[in-house]
Design goal:
Layout lengths: L1 E6 L5 E5 L4 H10 L6 E5 L5 H13 L2 E5 L4 E5 L7 E2 L1 H4 L9 H8 L1 E5 L12 H9 L3 E5 L2 E5 L7 E3 L5 H11 L5 E5 L5 H12 L3 E3 L5 E5 L8 E3 L4 H13 L3 E5 L7 H9 L5 E3 L2 E5 L10 E3 L10 H8 L5 E6 L9 H6 L3 E5 L2 E5 L8 E3 L3 H13 L3 E5 L2 H4 L5 H7 L3 E6 L4
Parallel strand pairs: 2-15, 3-14, 6-7, 10-11, 18-19, 22-23
Antiparallel strand pairs: 1-23, 1-24, 3-5, 4-5, 7-9, 8-9, 11-13, 12-13, 15-17, 16-17, 19-21, 20-21
């Protein structure tokens, strides 16, 4: 296992580019299962979740080739021979359940382990299963696996009581090869779903309402291979913006999808940070920035993302008064709070809310990562803290950020990845 050793208290300065969106790539990759041939994806981030999905694909018979030099990924889906997503892969990453819809649509069968991933929050997959049932699939749960079969999926009217990114993606992919028309209402409108839909259109799918909460899909007999460039990662962008702000730095962020993070940018501006925009650049000088305490409540896109809640909590630890952060998506996503308090923060939690009383300074300490975004919050706090901070178990961070320490070093951070042993 690796850890980060951070010598904090130094402003970050310079220009840094945002990489490809892990969550967008993980949605597009399973869509390739809908056709037979070689699909090419570019700007695919070099993160552990991507390699977990590639390993899963190889279990299915997909030949996946990743180019570490340029982030290109080739997926040859012409020799799929197995239809099972085993527990050993799915336990590491919830996005593995995305293979359910494409396998059912193309082959009429799928066996997918019940998903795992980050160790927090009830994240039920009933919406995925109900969508498949409405399209005519039989679904059984056997020995911890979803066992699904169909002679042919049929178009259906699917309404989600709760807008779900994963369920929308699964239903959307399945519907592209179903007989007849499918209507999905209360569909998720996150950029990752919009980019998935656009990729499906590039494959020849007939989809109307891309980017809206009501999507119409006219099923086709087959889809073509296609190319996609993965969109930039809005969560990495938000994390890097907060890294510059919390260290009172001067940062230029190369990011070509500013509107994807409007909710985060708006809260930063509310807190007193002056941001400037020039084509693909977002820049600011936080030398005189004294963060004002700003309340945040997470919500589905285009609201404030739950994946930025922990990072915002870290920023508010050094704000001028008291802020309340409420996570309306997941009720127990605050495992970073005890670790932030070890650094000198003053935070109390009550169910799905945290009350953060700003302190004058944070002080370095040894802290433990518990999940992907919690890890990011500890790194941010460590960058701002006086002295040395050790962030343990950063394999969580590696699931979603491509060597973030290198980007932070480029901005002048003193951060090192150090191998460590835990007994």
């Amino acid at each position: 296992m690796d850890k980060f050793v951070i010598n904090g208290g130094r402003p970050l300065n310079g220009r840094v580019e945002v990489g490809g969106a892990k969550n967008a790539a993980l949605a597009i990759m399973p869509a390739c299962l809908l056709n037979s041939g070689v699909n090419k994806l570019s700007n695919v981030p070099e993160v552990n979740d991507i390699f977990t999905m590639i390993k899963l694909f190889k279990q299915l018979g997909v030949d996946g080739q990743y180019d570490y030099d340029n982030g290109n990924l080739l997926l040859d889906t012409s020799h799929i021979s197995r239809f099972e997503a085993p527990y050993e892969h799915v336990k590491k990453m919830r996005a593995s359940v995305y293979v359910l819809g494409p396998l059912l649509a193309r082959f009429g069968k799928a066996k997918v382990s019940l998903p795992g991933g980050c160790a927090w929050g009830p994240r039920p997959i009933n919406l995925h299963l109900e969508a498949m049932k409405k399209m005519g699939a039989s679904i059984d749960i056997e020995g911890g696996y979803i066992v699904a079969n169909t002679s042919k999926l049929k178009g259906a009217r699917i309404h989600f009581d709760v807008s779900s990114v994963g369920a929308t993606g699964n239903a959307l992919m399945a519907a592209t090869l179903a007989d007849g028309e499918t209507k999905i209402s209360n569909a998720a409108i996150e950029p990752e779903i919009t980019s998935l839909a656009q990729f499906l259109v590039n494959m020849g799918a007939c989809i109307e309402g891309v980017g809206t909460s009501t999507i119409h899909i006219q099923g086709k007999n087959e889809l073509n291979t296609a190319f996609a460039r993965v969109i930039p990662d809005r969560i990495e962008a938000g994390t890097l913006l907060i890294a510059g702000a919390i260290t009172k730095g001067k940062v230029e962020l190369v990011y070509g999808a500013e509107n994807h993070i409007d909710s985060v940018v708006s809260k930063l501006e509310d807190s007193g940070l002056n941001l400037f925009y020039n084509n693909d650049l977002i820049s600011f000088d936080a030398n005189d920035y004294e963060a004002q305490s700003i309340d945040v409540s997470t919500s589905i896109y285009p609201g404030f993302p739950t994946d930025m809640q922990a990072q915002w909590t870290a920023l508010m630890t050094l704000a001028d008064s008291t802020a309340t952060v409420t996570d309306s998506i997941y009720i127990d996503r605050f495992k970073h709070v005890p670790e932030l308090n070890r650094l000198g923060a003053n935070i109390e939690t009550n169910r799905n809310s945290a009350v953060i009383r700003g302190v004058k300074k944070l002080t370095g300490a040894k802290v433990m990562s518990t999940d992907l975004r919690a890890s990011a919050s500890l790194v941010l706090a460590g960058l701002a803290a006086e002295g040395t901070t050790e962030v343990l178990r950063i394999y969580h961070l590696d699931r979603g950020y491509q060597r973030i320490e290198e980007k932070l070093k480029k901005l002048g951070a003193e951060i090192e990845r150090v191998p460590t042993k835990e007994f």
